[in-house]
Amino acid sequence: MSRTDWSETKRARVKAAQRPRRIIFNDDTHELALEDANTPEGFLAHRIAPFTETHVGTISWSVLCGQFDAPAYDSKVQPIYGDAQGAPVKYWRRVTENVKTLAREYRCPLHLVCDFAHEHGMEALASVRMNDVHDSFMDANAMTVWKRTHPEFMVDTRGTLPEFELYTTAQDFSHEAVRQRKLEIIEELCQRYDVDGFELDYIRHPVLFSRRMRGEPCTADEIDIITSMMGEIRSLTDAASERRGRPSLIAVRVPDTFITSLDNGMDVSAWLEEDLIDILIIGGGYAPWSLPVETWVEAAKPSGVPVYPCVNMGKELLPLVRGLASNWYRAGADGLYFWNLGTPFEFMTGDELVETRRRCYTCVHEVGDANMLVGKEKLFSVDSDTGGILSYYAHLSEPRLLPLESKHGTLRTGVIGRLPLIVGDDVESHPPTKATLSVEFDDPSWKDVLLIRLSGEELTDGHFVPTSDSQPDCQLTYDVRVPLLRTGRNVVEIAARNDVVLPEGTVTILGLDLTVEYA
Q: Do 210 and 169 touch, CB atoms closer than 8 A?
């Protein structure tokens, strides 16, 4: 659909979708689990109130709580968290009573979020977790009564692959009753709450049909089911827009690529073509350095849909987020979406809360503005598979390029691997005063064997950093300079020297980082 063919409704939605919202903050509603969250002031103080005077333009508040698929607001169509389980829940026990107290004596927590956001010039989105499965691994007793009494609506777990075992309590969207439960929540929110729209969070959790448990891609019929449901949601939000006289937006959070989205039942290309979405949030944040932001931006731009990549996890948070933001803005992103930013201080109080929150929130004072990133220290990196919980999200993420194991048991010399390292900073126009490339590996006996090339040239004078209590693996670090270091795509080649005796064992390359510093 060309822009000249856009309806007035579409134009109004595009205008609303493209308003400046430098950062979207997803709130999993944990603050409702705190003892003092039974008053508006106590509820807002922990996470939300500190966002005034930051780059946060949108609060996306998880209406089905952060887990267990039950309302964290005063719902009239489904029992709220705790009541939905039929008994007190082990995790976040205070949520149930706090929701009831706020709704009875003050305002429903979702009303409070909307009021706060609008009073401070922000948007409030209702974040809907499309298929939460925390009840499969956190607390089996936290499964809702509805799930327990309708096992026929759950995914078929026969033939489940190990990497899909996390999703054994997922609901199968081939059943109309499953889809209807999401639709009735969205319809209620459209009718009763002053939300500015919805975030449909397909990353929580991304198994919508039984065949995915066996690793099979969704069929065309299954993909059509989700697209049809998206059309029903659009009808609900358009009706709300007409009643209110202002647009009600649909944001979606989807897997890392168009292909992985399609394999998991989400035809994002069709959603764009059929005008079913207004804001695109990409990725779970599990392979952020590999996220093909430019591809998403090019596809979404003709439809007037802004793109927000997801920040989820990382070490040395501020330099890392600056690096991601630098890369993503250069690729055309409209802003950043933060996931789990408040998790580190969930149960903290007092000075510990204040200090930890300050460190976590420092980034939201600057990374929403590309100009504020110029001349600041950054970390650029390559995605590494550290195992654990990340293995359960491999089916929605770009492949991680690390770790990389040498094949020198048979091939005694030569290249171990070539790794792309993307640098968003304009290092040619504004060279860093210091740039340090770090290669992390597991076997110190390889320290004099590894040969590192950047842009085809061998790096020399490497500094070996042995293991320590704070550094479990060893490193080789190198000072690098422009023009070897380039804006955009750099290639780092890791090889074994052919003029030395190789160790008996193989070596595993675990990490590759570039830190840039400016005067």
A: no
What's the pLDDT band for 412 if we cut at 50, 70, 90? low
- Interatomic CA distance for residues 282 and 252, integer angstroms: 8
- Under DSSP, the state recorded for 195 is -
CA nearest 478: which of 498, 497, 505, 455? 455
| Residue 409 bridge partners (DSSP) | none
Is the pLDDT score of 133 beyond 90? yes
Task: Give, for 232, the enclosing helix (H) or strand (E).
Answer: helix 220-244
For 372-399, what is each residue's pLDDT tens digit? 999 999 999 999 997 777 889 999 999 9
Gap between the Cα atoms of 102 and 447, Å rounded: 60
- Cis omega before residue 205 (within 30°)? yes
Give the count of beta carbons closer than 10 Å to the beta carbon of residue 505.
13
Per-chain mean pLDDT for the chain: 95
Measured over the CA atoms of residue 284, residue 286, residue 291 and residue 293, the dihedral's sign is: positive
Q: Which helix (H) or strand (E) holds 495?
A: strand 488-496
* Residues 390, 405: Cα–Cα separation, whole Å: 19
Q: Which two tokens stand for residue 230?
A: 């998206």
| 3-state percent helix, strand, coil for the chain, nearest multiple of 5 | 35, 20, 45
**CATH code that applies to domain 404-517:** 2.60.120
Q: Residue ranges per domain, the chain?
A: 15-373, 404-517
In 3D, which of 417, 434, 519 has the Cα closest to residue 477?
A: 434
* Half-sphere exposure for 434 (CA within 13 Å, toward CB): 8
| Cβ atoms of residues 436 and 316 within 8 Å | no
Radius of gyration in angstroms for the set of CA atoms belonging to the chain, rounded to a whole number: 24
Question: What is the Cα–Cα distance from 154 to 159, expressed in whole angstroms?
Answer: 15
To which CATH superfamily is domain 15-373 assigned?
Glycosidases (3.20.20.80)
Angle at 403 between CA 399 and CA 405, to 5 degrees: 120
The conformational region for residue 46 under phi > 0 = left, psi -120 to 50 = alpha, else beta, is alpha
Read off the pLDDT of residues 451-480 as tens digits, 9 standing for 90 and up: 999 999 999 999 999 988 777 789 999 999
pLDDT tens, position by position, 200-211 = 999 999 999 999
Report the distance separating Cα 218 and Cα 191, nearest Å. Answer: 33
Burial of 42 (0-12, 13-18, 19+ CB in 10 A): middle
The model's pTM is 0.96
Residue 440 DSSP symbol? E
Give the separation between CA 432 and CA 515, rounded to whole angstroms: 10
8 Å CB contact between 47 and 31: yes
